[in-house]
Amino acid sequence: MTSGTAAMNKDRTPGQSLVLSEGWMRVNDSVMGGISTSRAYMEDDVLHFEGQLSLANNGGFVSLQRPVPEEVFSGSTDLCLNFKLEPGRQLQVRLRDGRGSDGVAYRQSITASGDWQRVQLDIGDFIPVFRGRVLTGYPGVEQTIAPRNIRQVGLLISDKNTTPFHLLVNEMSACTIH
Question: Which of 42, 90, 96, 99 gives a 20 to 30 Å CA spacing to 141?
Answer without folding.
Answer: 90
